[in-house]
Write a structure and sequence with these properties.
Helices cover 73% and strands 0% of the residues. It is mainly alpha-helical and 146 residues long. The longest helix is centred in the N-terminal third of the chain and has 20 residues. The chain is elongated. The N and C termini lie far apart (62 Å).
Length: 146
């Protein structure tokens, strides 16, 4: 195997990782990322995701998702990237209670502002079936004191 084969293999593996995390087919993952950040960025992102961080054997997708969530919350990211990894964590078996516990843990290390806003995102993206008595209006803005 030459170096270009290794690069091509990593890009292919990385595209598969993004597709799995986004919950879409591989060709759609590529077009979504390219539309959001450009083709060159998508290629580099796939190359990185095809490496040991996402393809190694010592971490599970659950472990990886929790690590990425912690990193995003630490950077006050609460939009589409966080939602992507919250959904990936759910798909990997992290429960809503587990996500709430993660936010409480992150509060101790990152502070309440970052974790509380992230917790609002957890709640607003939770499947309604897991929130007893919840309706869309009751979870639309969990930080509203009203």
């Amino acid at each position: 195997m030459n170096a270009s084969d290794n690069v091509a293999d990593r890009i292919t593996a990385g595209r598969a990782v993004y597709a799995r995390n986004l919950g879409v087919p591989e060709d759609e993952a590529e077009s979504m990322l390219a539309a959001r950040a450009g083709a060159q960025y998508a290629r580099e992102a796939f190359l990185a995701a095809g490496g040991p961080g996402w393809s190694g054997t010592e971490l599970t997708d659950r472990d990886r998702s929790v690590a990425v969530i912690a990193a995003l919350v630490g950077q006050h990211v609460v939009d589409a990237p966080l939602i992507t990894y919250l959904n990936a964590a759910r798909a990997a078996g992290v429960t809503e209670e587990g996500l709430a516990e993660l936010m409480m843990l992150l509060t101790a290390y990152l502070g309440q502002p970052a974790a509380s806003v992230a917790m609002a995102t957890v709640l607003s993206t939770a499947p309604l079936a897991v929130l007893p008595g919840a309706s869309p209006s009751s979870i639309s803005d969990p930080t509203d004191p009203a």
